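Sample 3 of the quickstart, ligand S-adenosylmethionine:
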Amino acid sequence: MPASYKKKLIEVAIPLEAINAASAREKSIRHGHPSTLHLWWARRPLAACRAVLFAQLVDDPSSRVDELLADKKLRARAEAELPKRVKAWEESKAAAKGAAASAPKPTLEDVIVEIERKRLFDIIEELVKWENSTNEEVLERARAEIRRSCGGELPPVYDPFSGGGSIPLEAQRLGLPAYGSDLNPVAVMIGKAMIEIPPKFKDMPPSTPASRSGRSTATPKGWPRM
Ligand SMILES: C[S@@+](CC[C@H](N)C(=O)[O-])C[C@H]1O[C@@H](n2cnc3c(N)ncnc32)[C@H](O)[C@@H]1O
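Result:
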């Protein structure tokens, strides 16, 4: 492993409880969910894909301790927090036996990394909520973190076995150039319908404006009647 190797967040920690809860909740969402487009047997929860993509691309804060220590506000927060952590460590050390008794004393670096990791967890916890699937403010916060860890770019993502297309869909939502492929033509069709074709019509006016207003949708003038 090269000396400059930077650990990604997913290699260290992710907020599993929030990701699991959002993933489980998604099973009961029908309106607007791709699961209603076509049955796919092994569809991955979108919330989990979104979180995993983010955590794979964003560096764990332990990879940039110097940068964090140079941030005056953050450093002051960590310095204020450190004595509490040391006290808790001393108490648990006095009460603990075995491995727990040999836990290392917390340092300023540990505390500052934890504070920053918590900030990234907060972003993930917002990102995985179904209500935030199209919340540009939440998505943009996530994109900014990805850019910071990826040399200012939003890198492309390719899922060579894309199945129901959850990974390229979520990559696209995060603004990453997204690619998918699959051996199964049904999966390819789902991918095209969900990821390739919709962006071509993005921001175009609806062909049946009444459908947006909640009124019943008459067949547009000139269209064949079914
Ligand atoms: C578990 S599914 C993929 C799930 C998907 N990555 C997701 O996260 O939702 C595995 C997919 O791999 C595809 N597959 C299997 N062998 C393949 C191959 N040799 N080339 C391309 N796709 C293949 C299958 O058709 C299936 O859709």
